[in-house]
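Lecture 7 notes: from sequence to structure.
We start with the chain below.
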Amino acid sequence: MCRMSEELPPYAEHVLEVAERIPPGRVMTYGDVAEWLGEGGPRQVGRVMALYGGAVPWWRVVRADGVPLPGHELRALEHYRAEATPLRLTAGGEPRLDMRRARWDGAPGDPGGDGTRDEAHT
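Predicted structure tokens for the same chain:
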């Protein structure tokens, strides 16, 4: 992993490792990452991503509502389109992640997944 610092807090290291494992075209929510790790919560994951996430595919760790990261919408959408991440349009024409199709459960060898959670990590 490309690190911004050699001395990352252990929790940050774990969060960034999960972010790196998410396959192109798939996403995990902040809560999914915390649940998969079995520690912390969505806010802690969000904080790690805000402080250290620039060195990993940050656009793959998202809000549960599928709204692209505020302030980084255009860059995130470029990545989603390049990776063929499932998107949908809102009634107002705004692009959102199609969470039902894009969500990755973290299962090894399951880049396509089916949107279900991996029972070993719940």
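Points to note: The chain is about 35% helix and 10% strand. The longest strand covers residues 87-89.
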